[in-house]
Fold Type I restriction enzyme HsdR N-terminal domain-containing protein.
Amino acid sequence: MESLNLPAFEYKVKQVNGKPYIFDIIRRKFVSLTPEEWVRQHFIHLLINQYGYPKSLFAIETGMKYNTLAKRTDIMILAGDGSPFLLVECKAPFISVGEAALAQISRYNFTLRPTYLAATNGMSHYCFQAVNGRIEYLDDFPVYRQ
């Protein structure tokens, strides 16, 4: 897998039928190692190690409905009351975090209403705060506060 613009972390990879799998510390199992999963695992470790989020607040690939479509969130951090706090959309490194990715996370915002939204492809990272129906760009990701 290619080097990302995210801190390195210690990971476990194994081969299953000739395909790579990486251990996900949140789901506590090996999952298929795709380029998007490589980004997701890096971002999970960033949120835990640098921003202080406890593993117990993570929800990975949580199902949701948008209009009549079934969708899945890549990473969702829950607030202490169980409501969505930070929603992260992960893309493969070769996919631009452009208008389409930001539109996708905006649609999720309409349904889930998290306080913060983020998008990353492992090279570029963006974080926004939803304030009174407006989305404001932030310079950094929110640090966990109990």
In short: The chain has one domain: 13-138. The chain has two helices and nine strands.
